[in-house]
Amino acid sequence: MSTSAESSEGPVVGIVMGSDSDWPVMEAAAQALDEFEIPYEADVVSAHRMPREMIAYGEEAADRGIKVIIAGAGGAAHLPGMLASVTPLPVIGVPVPLKHMDGMDSLLSIVQMPAGVPVATVSVAGARNAGLLAARILGVHDEELRGRMREFQQELNDQASEKGKRLRAKTEGVAGFGFGSGS
Ligand SMILES: Nc1c(C(=O)O)ncn1[C@@H]1O[C@H](COP(=O)(O)O)[C@@H](O)[C@H]1O
Question: What would the 3-class secondary structure string for 35-104 be?
């Protein structure tokens, strides 16, 4: 398993996926965690192709110090739900779009969990949000991390305000609310 190079602490987030072909989507979760300096591990764990290893991963993750699992899969995406069934940890599911489908298949496979086995599901290919949600979950018990999340939210706000300014400049004469015009 690979671990974030930036931290000497053990991984606290497990990023797993059904295949290495999911990585181009899933690496956005890793990038978000890097931005918050959260150590993670990343690997392929397929419910369909490696059922025993998948169960072992899910059963052992909490005892190894993992606090949140991000699981991405495409098509018949059973991995996030099966992991959620064997771990007490929060599982965030990422639907991965495949070449011949738009990802609705994996979205529905992941989101339609039976009562009692929750998977927090992000949008199709929404791996960045999965990483950010993991950061928020970890921030519940980490004031410093919560502070960094607030800064991140302020940056988002600044960027959105800039977008408003740019749009108002382009549409001169059209009425706007003027959010962000004071800064
Ligand atoms: N959905 C699953 C599971 C699973 O849920 O256990 N294992 C692999 N897969 C998905 O199969 C797709 C094609 O995989 P390959 O590219 O290896 O053929 C990937 O998107 C993977 O997540």
Answer: HCCCCEEEEECCCCCCHHHHHHHHHHCHHHCCCEEEEEEECCCCHHHHHHHHCCCCEEEEEECCCCCCCH
- For residue 26 and ligand 1, the question of a CB distance below 6 A is answered with no
Q: Which residue has the least CA distance to atom 21 on ligand 1?
A: 18
Torsion angles phi and psi, residue 91, rounded to 5:
-115, 130
Point out the annotated binding site for substrate. 19, 22, 49
* Ligand 1 atom closest to residue 78's alpha carbon, by position in its atom list: 5
pLDDT at 174: 79
Q: What is the pLDDT of residues 115-124, one digit of tens each?
A: 999 999 999 9
Beta bridge partners of 4: none
Q: What is the pTM of this model?
A: 0.92
